[in-house]
Every structure is written in C-alpha cells, then in structure tokens.
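Q: Structure tokens for this one, please.
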Amino acid sequence: MRPSAAAWTALVLLLLQGASSACTVKKASSSSGRFANATLVRLSEFLSAGYKKGVRPVKDWRTSTIVAIDLMVYSILSVDEKNQVLTTYVWYRQSWTDEFLVWNPEDFDEVKQVSIPTANVWVPDILINEFVDVGKSPDIPYVYVTHDGLVRNYKPIQVVTACTLNIYNFPFDVQKCSLTFQSWLHTIDDINITLMRSPEELREDKSVFMNQGEWELLHILSNYKIFSVDDDDYYAEMKFHVVIRRRPLFYTVNLLLPSIFLMVMDVVGFYLPPDSGERVSFKITLLLGYSVFLIIVSDTLPATAIGTPLIGVYFVVCMALLVISLTETVLIVRLVHKQDLQPPVPHWVKYLVLERAPVLFCIHKKHRLCSRLSSGTSDLEHYKDSSYGTAQCSLHHTCEIGRRLSQQDHREAGLLGLHRTPPRDPGPPVMDSILQEVTAIRHFLEKRDRCREVAKEWLQVGYVLDVLLFRVYLVAMVAYSITLGTLWSVWQVA
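A: Here is the predicted structure, written as tokens:
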C-alpha cells in the first residue's frame, strides 16, 4: 500500500523540525562550552537578570539609602584671586548598599566581589554645589560590588569651584574653601550622607597630597548639616573645608627684599651733605628705580575688586616715604643755598632751631659749628679792626709827610730868590679819593662778611633741621616696618 500525500507531507515536516532542533542544540552546546567555566559571566547574568537601574535599590521604599563619602586632596592646581576660583584635584570615594546586587559566594566559586559597569547600576545623584566649570576628569566606567550588596564608586575629579579668597594677608595668607556634597533631587528620606572615616582621620590625612607647589595643605574639616529650602523637604549635605596656606618664600625674595634694599639706600642718602646737589639727584634716581620696580611686580600681586592686599599698601607707603624724603631734601637744599639777597635768620628760628632743638634732641654737631662760627667771627672782627686801624695810621702818616715836604720846598724856594708861582697843593684831593676808595672797599667787605654770616646761619639751621627730619623719617620707617613684620609673622605662624 502506497502512502498518501498527507503522510508524505507530515514526514517532511518532521525531518525539518528535527534538523532545526539539531542546529539549535549544536549552537547551544557550542555556546555553553565556550563559557562553561566563566563564573564571572554567570554572576553577571545573575545580577543583571531583572535589575532596574532607574529605581532606588531598596526592597522597602521607606528605607533611606545611606551614602558614605570620603575626600582626599591630591593637588592644588591653581588659585585665581581675581575670579575667586579654586581648582583642585581630589580623590572622591562613595559607597552605598544595593539590596538587589546580593549573591551567595558558594554558588559562584567563592567570588565575593565583582566589577560591573557604572552604567548598569543605580548611582546616587550627589554633586558639588560650588561647581563653576567642568574639569578634565578621567572617566572611570566601573564600580566594585561585594556579595552583600556594597557598591564602591572610587574616582578622581578635577574640581573647579567658587571660593571666597581673602588676599589681605598676601603672601602670608591662609585660604579656606568649601566643597559641599549633596543630593540634587532626593530628600533625606531617600538619600542620607555620612562619612567613611572619622573626622579626625579625615582632618590629618595628607598621604596623597603633592606637597611641592605654591600651596600646602593644612587640614580638611568636615561638617554635616540638614537644611530645607521651602520648610517642607529636608536635604542632607556634607561640607568639606579645605584649608590651604601659601608658601611666601618666592614673594619674600622677589618683592619684599628689593623694596627693603631701596628703602635702606634712601636712609643712607641722608648722610650726603645737604648743601650739595648730589643728594637730590640720588633720591630722584631711587624714586625712579622704585617706580620701575612697582611696574615690574604689578603683575605678580593678586588683584580683586573686593580689596587690596597689605603688601600693596606697603609698596604705596614706601613710595610715599620716598617722595617725602625727596621733598625734605629739596627744602633743605633750598634753605642752605648761599645767596647774596638771602634775608637774615629770624630770632624765633634761632631760638627754636639753634638753641632749643639741639638740647632736646642731643644734636652735638650744633655746638661745634657754633663755636667755629663764633671764633671765626671774632677773628674776622679783630682782623678788620687791625687792618683798618693800620690803614688809617698809614694814611695820616703819609699826609703829614706830604705837608712837611711841601713846607720845606717853599722855604728853599724863598732862599734862592726864585720868584715862581706857588704850585697847587695836590695833597688833599688825592687823599680824599684814596680814602673814598678805601671806604668803599671796606663797605664791600663788610657787606660780603654779613652775607657770609647769614649764609652760615642758614646753613646751621639747615643742618639742624636735616638731622631732626632724618630722625623723624627714620622713626616712622622703623615703626612701620616693625608693625608689618609683626603682622606677617603672626599670620605665618597662624
């Protein structure tokens, strides 16, 4: 009996189904053979089966997810005082418990932790509030998961944050910048924040900090706070205060020491004689040199719209002191400059400057100068008296001899009987002109001596005033330097 068409059709379908199932079995057997001993593959498939990364990983929705965070500062990259921005490189760590990523290590060859892609698991939305720019941070695509559901997310971050920088104490300033971590959306009922380590361990940990730059890390303070925006929802935040201090050696060598040297040279310039023009040119040169110095260091000083650092005030005051010193030098040089039309020194100036001031301020040069002037004056008067007396005696003696010679000539002419017209006596007019010339010379010498005496008195007043002003200038400079040095020492120790 021959089979029917329907029987032949059923037989062909059976053969095709058998071939198909054979191919399927072959593929399955080859696949299972390829990953036969891949425990991590089996574990990954076990963990990802039915996992929802968009849902907070708790079985009871009333349970809050506690995220433990930690921070270690690796380097201070830059501090921008003008824009009030701090750039740091930190190692940030966070961990939380995922109740859906739990397994029994005995079922997976005692595997107790595994790394899985970050994109495949739920991650808390914890951000830094002070972020002002996205830094160039490396992308770490994996997290560690332990068998009890603990997820550890460790990554380095370049943090560009806003910070209120106080530059008044520059270059001995200490800055305190905050990094505030909080969940941007979830309230404290959903996500709470805590520390991985104790605050004491976090404060003193400098194990990874690169301590070779301009700034040194003092410590890291932590502060936990719960706040509310609308008095309805409460949020948890963890604030880290990064306290850093600037190393002042570079600025001390390149800013403070040149300024101190120029000011010392200005003090030394007071030992130049005030009646010479060299002091004025010397101080003008110092003033120009200090101006060039300020132009050079202007780019080094931090600039903000809030305030000016104390070192900037110090430079301005030093410039003002140089201007005051130059002004004092010009006045003293003008005072002691010798001129024929210079008026005499007033009596009150003589009393205050030449008598009282030297006694009060122990100016010993004044007494020696006065003794020289008094001795020189007495000698000059004695010389004038003796010279003029001798000149008068010589003139009277010459006149007497001339008269006697004239009388003797007349007698001799009468004896000889010579009837000549007696000559005109030329004696008196010649002698009068000689006396007039001598008197004019005497008046000129007296006037010149009086001018010299006035110039000497003004020179004496100038020397005394120069010493007084120098002492006042020196006291002001020393007091100012001590005050600044004390402040900067206190800031550096603190």
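A few notes: DSSP finds nine helices and eleven strands in the chain. Confidence is low (pLDDT under 50) at residues 11-16, 18-31, 366-406, 408-422.
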